[in-house]
UniProtKB/TrEMBL annotation:
<protein>
    <submittedName>
        <fullName>Uncharacterized protein</fullName>
    </submittedName>
</protein>
Length: 96
């Protein structure tokens, strides 16, 4: 994977990170999806989707939905989850 600018919402105790992908859908809406990224040997990453797509009329609205989804997914870690806005990351490449 090429270098990407990720803005973690949360770093777990094992070093993995919860991140959000934000994309313009091309239909006047924005979509977000939550991923957990784990670093493996030789700088390889394992990327797992942990949410469905969340949609909003602005990137901020979609990111707010993602933030609230992260709070529901990790209720014991809500204090550590970064609030929006987040840097824009378009998600993992299609070649997983």
């Amino acid at each position: 994977m090429a270098r990407i600018n990720l803005d973690p919402l949360l770093t777990f105790s094992d070093g993995s990170q919860l991140v959000v992908s934000t994309q313009h859908s091309g239909e006047g809406r924005f979509e977000c999806e939550l991923f957990v990224i784990r670093t493996r040997d030789n700088n390889n990453w394992e990327i797992d989707s942990v949410s469905a797509h969340m949609s909003g009329i602005s990137s901020m609205e979609a990111q707010d939905f993602a933030f609230r989804s992260a709070q529901r997914l990790y209720p014991t870690l809500t204090e550590g989850i970064k609030k929006p806005p987040y840097l824009i990351w378009h998600g993992p490449s299609q070649q997983r």
